[in-house]
Amino acid sequence: MAFISSGYNPDKPMEDRITDIGPQHFENFYPEVIKKNKGKWLYHDILKPGVLVHVSETGDEVYTVRAGGARLMTVTHIREICEIADKHCDGHLRFTTRNNIEFMVDSKDKVDPLIKDLESRKFDGGSLKFPVGGTGAGISNIVHTQGWIHCHTPATDASGPVKAAMDEVFSDFQNMRLPAHLRISLACCLNMCGAVHCSDIAILGYHRKPPMVDNAYLDKMCEVPLAIASCPTAALKPKKVELEDGNTVNSIAVNRDRCMFCGNCYTMCPSLPLADKEGDGIVLMVGGKVSNRVSAPKFSKVVVSFIPNETPRWPSMTDQIKNIIEAYASDARKYERLGEWAERIGWERFFSKTGLEFTHHLIDDFRDPAYYTWRQTTNFKF
Amino acid sequence: MAKHETPLLDQLESGPWPSFVSDLKQEAAARAKNEKNIEYQVPVDVVEDLLGVLELSFKDGTTHWKHGGIVGVFGYGGGVIGRYCDQPETFPGVAHFHTMRVNQPAGKFYKTDFLKNLCDLWEFRGSGLTNMHGSTGDIVLLGTTTPQLEEIFYELTHKYNQDLGGSGSNLRTPADCIGQARCEYACYDTQDLCHTLTQEYQDELHRPAFPYKFKFKFDGCPNCCVASIARSDMSFIGTWKDDIRIDQDAVKGYVNGDFKPNAGAHAGRDWGAFDIQKEVIDLCPTECMKYEDGKLAINNKECTRCMHCINVMPRALRPGKETGCSILVGAKAPILDGAQMGSLLVPFVEVNKENDYEAIKEVIEAVWDWWMEEGKNRERLGELMKRQGFQKLLEATGIKPVPQHVQEPRHNPYIFWKEEEVEGGWDRDINEFRKHHKR
Amino acid sequence: MELEEAKEKIVEALNKKAKTKSKFYFNDLSKILELKPREAKKLISKLVEDEVLVYWSSGSTTMYGLKGAGKQAAAEHED
């Protein structure tokens, strides 16, 4: 493996350096029909799950076929996407915010061959490469974070639970039977780099054990003031520790009762690991939304305080998710989002209809916002 | 023959949903085969070892990655996330496995030649694994070694006219919805605003000088498909001031069942015949609509532009023509004091390409100046707003308070009057007071 | 402020604290320079380009330190 230079000269990093050029201009990538009709679209229709037509005031139409994809994808897979786009779409495609792939064609007769091509492609293991769906009142792709693939503080995996959950709710990716669209998201720890806090169903990784302290190495590997400052709840303080060999070293004391299990200290100090097989697992939150439609955007609420990480397919988690979806699908009104349904029937009714157990963990006790979640009325249901 | 046995991961190859495990395996096989005789710059078995370390995580329920403080390429304070494997002897191929964030084009439209070039580069100088895309919006290149970072950046900028995205205490890579490119609801050109501001603020994106991360997101209408209102420090949401445009014939078309409501989004179940009273008029949150004598009437003055009626009858109803955006600020995920939704700062501003979005930039820069001076380390804009109060934000941006800023007026009377607001000021003569009030 | 003066101030202040910590927030540096953030940024970015300062990132937050300082720099040493 010989090193091959790009032309970069490490001795003179600023030589010929190009910086601050930003991304490519979006117009370089527009399909012709988009370029021509931008800003002129009149209306759209979902012809069937995963297939949209947009009609322009010029009379032009663009047909979009939406295919699901794992957001973790290899260059081999991307090249296959490109091959399809070259074959059917003049070399154009786009990705959606929810990691779907959109293939666009400018006439109806090109749609069926494209779908046929997409649906014919399978991985060696048997799964579909490009399932068509993810539109309308159904379940679109799950947006997620890195998990065990690449993150240092996850309390669960991301790609694994997502694959397991999408397999279980797959029929709703290809159907539009729900009262409204239902968005599932996953973040593998409470820092939520995936911002799942406004999803209809949020899958959240959560640690339950405070960090261990690697006293013998801490002062060698970390800077104590930085680690202490990283703790959002001020649960850490400096401490001198006598090791078994009699030496006294600088270390850190963890006030375990104050720990919220965020892992921020581990980011600053590798001598404070917190991951643990029994401790880590999943929290389910429901009822969030981001659209302003009918009711204001809402945060998701915690309805299942803990589910263990059952690799490789997280069956307890997927059972609970399916259970929540079915209760919603059978009881909510047309257009009603999951959170709107829960608020209309009341959360006490949400728990009776889903059969989920209500525990003290589900009552907010964190600082000021907690009060606003308690009931301050005699109006409630038995 | 696979390098590591992966009995747990293998169980994720079945089922209909695209299997990332199968995809990783095909990449591992392609690298091992190396049909194109590529001089791989990171270990050929990098994907095999990734599968191996992931299998180990599935077995022991914990991650095997360590954080590294490496930030980026020379002169940049973001764009790279450092990762090291904590089992480097067993999985040497992923001992160093850094991520690079590549700034995606606005709207995430691509031409295949661009993607193919990126694939060639990433296969040659990285693991060949990507995220299309990361949560913030970047193209994420997963897994390369430190010496390759500069080489990749050099090739990206010199050959492909393409820059890195943001991480750390930077302006993060801005992201937008599909907007006017293919959506009839979009009230402004999200792609153009997103791209223009991304270019304008390259220094903020690459050289961290903020107290913490800062995100821009651009939604063309209040449906908020990129979730700007929930996850961006500054969210630009398309809206309009005039009347919803009505095509009465098309309204009749929906009533008569000629068109499917909500563009056919509910076609998977028999919900019965479309009932405009029940499905539109009665669900209008402001009760500003009526349907009488075959005619739809909207009292636009009372409309809060929630999009429901337009979503249900896209052929009949369109947003008005006097369009612009609302700017909401301070959204964030829960850590620490709880999640925050964006709060309305600018009810309406025109989105004007012609003057280079001057009015919008003015607001942005005023907000930044305030936050950079007053924000504590690791304090998001929304938290500063909570700590110092919304009034301070209005002061900093020179925006006049209006009832639209609040859901309701304050509950407590603890108004912190300023001296200059009170007639006669605060300095008084105690002796004068005592003339009329005995001790 | 001239770049040389900024460099002296920063190097002196950071060295003084080197025993306890090696990484600093941007705000710490602008306070050392007694400048408004935007003014400070120009000088600090130049000091990074001149390899006096280096960035360190937690992923979500970026910090600054003198080149080569700190324990983790050594811990992450790549050979």
Short description:
The complex is a heterotrimer of chains A (382), B (439) and C (79). By secondary structure, chain A is of the alpha+beta class.
How would you characterize the overall build of this protein?
The complex is a heterotrimer of chains A (382), B (439) and C (79). Helix content of chain A is 25%, strand content 19%. With 382 residues, chain A is α+β, with helices and mostly antiparallel strands. A five-stranded antiparallel beta sheet of chain A has the order 1-2-3-6-5. In chain A, strand 5 and strand 6 form a beta hairpin. Chain A is globular, with a radius of gyration of 25 Å. Chain B is an alpha+beta fold and 439 residues long. Chain B folds into three domains: 152 residues, Alpha-Beta Plaits (2-Layer Sandwich); 159 residues, Sulfite Reductase Hemoprotein, domain 1, CATH 3.30.413; 74 residues, Alpha-Beta Plaits. Chain B is built from 15 helices and 15 strands. In chain B, the strands form four sheets. A five-stranded antiparallel beta sheet of chain B has the order 1-2-3-6-5. In chain B, strands 7-8-9-14-15 form a five-stranded mixed beta sheet. The radius of gyration of chain B is 28 Å and the shape is globular. Chain C has a two-stranded antiparallel sheet with strand order 1-2. In chain C, helix 2 crosses helix 3. Chain C is of the alpha+beta class. Classes of the chains: A alpha+beta (382), B alpha+beta (439), C alpha+beta (79). At the A-B interface, strand 1, strand 4, helix 2, strand 5 and helix 4 of A face helix 1, helix 2, helix 3, strand 1 and strand 4 of B.
